[in-house]
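Please, why this fold?
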Amino acid sequence: MFTGIITAVGQIKEATPSGDGMRLVIETPSGYLDDVALGDSIAIQGACMTATEITGNQFTLDISRESLNKTMGLDQLAPVNLEKALRLSDRLGGHLVSGHVDGIGTVVHFAPVDAAPDASWHLVIKAPKELTPFFAYKGSIVVNGVSLTVNVVDREDTTGCHVEINIIPHTLQNTTLGRLQAGDAVNLEVDLIARYVARLMDFQIKA
């Protein structure tokens, strides 16, 4: 489990074919891996992965074809958001996050809300139809591993919906979200509680 609070920005240094998937080598800030052991889980752009090798400030992971098909940004040499798995003693600063990407969204709009140098930014994402029921006003969403709050859900139709989010400067400076542009694809994870509520409702209707 994770919280969606990014603890570092790393860099994919190598991405090579391995079996039906890929093997990635990720460089982290100095000291980031000091408390990480082989087999530990680390979320990469919101996707839970397993550290299979650790050398200095780099760790290696294997990613399956299924995971590559269900995510974005894990097959190219680029910066990535990192979060270590949650300890039971940790503060839950964001919300409960599983690290399982539910779908791919598309950035529709991303710009500062005004001209002030410390302005927050307005992010609008087009989410796929199958995820639409899980979004609610002031509910939670994970975008590329970052726990964020939904401000508006609108333009719902047969293709999906628009989710509007406000992002503060601190988040932009300490995650990869500041690099987003209109048209970019992003990894999305819906709220864990909403997922189970939807399942229970579906079960009751069928019963």
